[in-house]
Hints:
It is a single chain. Helix content is 44%, strand content 17%. The chain is of the alpha/beta class. The chain has 2 domains: 155 residues, Glycogen Phosphorylase B (Rossmann fold), CATH 3.40.50; 174 residues, Glycogen Phosphorylase B (Rossmann fold), CATH 3.40.50. Helix 1 packs across helix 14, helix 7 packs across helix 12 and helix 10 crosses helix 13. The radius of gyration is 21 Å and the shape is globular. The model has no long low-confidence stretch (mean pLDDT 92).
Amino acid sequence: MQNANVAHLTSVHSRYDDRIFIKHCCSLAANGYRVALVVADDAGDEQRNGVFIADVGKSKGRLDRMMKTTARVLQRAVRLQAEIYHLHDPELLPVGLRLKRMGKRVVFDSHEDVPKQLLGKPYLGPVRLRALSGAFALYEKHTCRKFDGIVAATPYIRDKFLAINPCTVDINNFPVLDDIHTHTSWEGKRDEVCYIGSFAADRGIRETMRALELVRTPVRVNLAGRFDDAGLEADAKASSGWSRVNALGYIGRSEIRNVLARSVAGLVTLHPIVNYLDALPVKMFEYMAAGIPPIASNFPLWREIVEGNDCGLCVDPLDPEAIAGAIDYLLTHPDEARQMGENGRRAVLEKYNWATEEAKLLRFYDRVLSR
Length: 371
């Protein structure tokens, strides 16, 4: 519906979040919607790419975020007088119920399967975990059946919510085609692979360091991102594998394109924990989009994508020898690596790209507005 007023709400994510701002908000604004994004970061209000960003102030901790920040998000949301309110955080489900009681259209965007994710937090203890997961699942079902629609980040999450709310669609976080351009010929690449994202234990940084101790080729790894734990960072830097690391820190999109252009492969060896098995990591598709083969965890869904398109290698993410072997193979078989890269790029151009998901998002909004 042309000129419909839409408000996206988050109390957690950054104002320029790739999924929320770059893809959802900017796509809607470019297609005639009046779009506001409510955030909580203390960076102030601004207008950017046709989106009005409304800041409610930074939280002072998790409890403050759950109690006071969500209340400020609700207050700002009501002032915007939107026709659709699109929620991006589970903690905003009560906000959605309040908005529904005011007669508003409300959409919940499930980035993750939260009840399943809770089961992957061992520090809470198995009995407490099951109770917490079950309680949240019941609350999620109660609230989401009242909403006007559900957006799911993956087909797996979509199928779960279809049983709760028939107006459910999966909007996958695939790359924007405009971001896909790397002009370095394969012959111009270096003996480098890359990892782009945050460095965490469950994202395989320890196994990567161990793999770098085992590789037989003169490979170096471009690490672009930040550690989420100081102890983990110290352990990684103490490893002999660190001598093969180009530590780039957090870098912008143009620098990321340069890293992808000179790398032979991209690492996405996340651990087989419950909330990763059915995830669709955007970095895997960005590697494919850049024309380099991903070295990915051998989860069934990921194998279907990577091996099904013959665009990379899948390995046991807990096995450093398997990761090292995949790195060595791609460096010593450049013709195969280049063909895998071309296959992956073709798959993204034809299927795994934001243009296909944007069309689904626009159809979904039309459906919600017509209800």
